[in-house]
Amino acid sequence: MCADPADKLALTARMQSDWIAGKLASKSACPNCAVVAIAIPGRPDRPRLVPPRLVASRGIGSPEGRAALVHAVAHIEFNAINLACDAVYRFRGLPAEFYADWIAVAADEARHFAMLQHRLTQLGSHYGALDAHDGLWQMAVATAHDALVRMALVPRVLEARGLDVTPGMIERLRSAGDSKTVDCLETILSEEIAHVAAGTHWFRYLCEQRGLDPDATFLALIDLHARGIVRAPFNESARQRAGFTPTEIDALNRFS
Hints:
By secondary structure, this protein is mainly α. The chain contains nine helices and no strands. The chain has helices at 5-20, 63-90, 96-122, 135-142, 147-175, 179-210, 214-225, 236-241, 246-255. The radius of gyration is 18 Å and the shape is globular. The model has no long low-confidence stretch (mean pLDDT 93).
């Protein structure tokens, strides 16, 4: 719920260090306490949030265009901090490794955001300078009722989309001579594969606990919640490293 980005980064780092030091328990100290719905997480007044169709897109041939691209990715990473923290808070009674994974993801996302925030400064901009959209957190709200649905649709759909589009962004930026932003995105891409893989692992764990077929369940959830989000082409190599099966990838190609 922290709204200030600098404070959120510091608190996320403290959460990870406290977890590693054994200062946090994976079992709630108040097992009967209700989990609070979070319609709006902590975030600064800017960027202004608008429908996705109203977020301006700009070519990367100019510093302003590259700043717009970095701002869009920074906004995703800022939201990803909240999403990982929400998974740690919201979903109770899972193995300790679940919380370890999503605390580590939150720390990675915080580091990614800080890196992009620094790059924005180098480009003469800052986080909040441009409009953004709220699609990531809207999906968090839509999946708050069930860890299985969250693992399917946030890491394995929304974050996996980054695996598909980031290589193309890297190539365009490299052609534009922006090696600093390329370095940022290459780091993010390599680490996001592990984040999607964590989603895959826990999605399949929850399917096994409930006696569900993971491939069929995943595709049914996409059909119900995310048909408009899944679009080819897919970075099949990265998705395979993140745990997608050939059956899933073939079905995703048919969806799109």
